[in-house]
Amino acid sequence: MHGTSDFKKGLKILVKDQPCVIIDFQHVKPGKGNQFTRTKLKNLLTGSNLDLTVRSGEKFKIPNITYKDMSFLYREGDLFHFMDVSNYEQVSVHRDIVDYAVHFLKADMQVSVCLYNENVISIELPKSVVLKVKKTDPGFKGNTVSNTFKPAELETGFSIQVPLHINEGDELKVNTSDGSYVERVKQG
User: How far is CA 55 from CA 51, 78, 106, in A?
Assistant: First the structure.
């Protein structure tokens, strides 16, 4: 059981028998009356956001959530296939669950699969991934300092803004939380 004093961003709790993750919270101590906690939660099954105000000291059950390291194998329409690296079992996950991670997945990528009661509820990517530029306007030598960007399509089909000196075939480190360019990866 977790009490309101245990609250922190990322903590997973059960609210009305639904697994939720704490996005933000604030302990409030009014001049009169009892203390309470305002909490912003995200339902892990539906993806919906929920604002919840609870009395100080209230307890919440811990959801039955486990994580497995898996390797992304391939995509087949709206199904994404992953393999457990410890026992080679395969799992098929619908695109709705893969969600934003679809922009960064490539074959043999290691991800963390979040399971609730043995059902996949989300895919967690590494903080950054290295992806190859599939299509962009030609780069120019000397355009390394400017703060000007151009669009580039990555090997996964996802488009990001990159500096002018980036060319097709370059490998880029991309932040998976917001899809932003981090740096060009040295080749060779």
Answer: 14, 43, 45
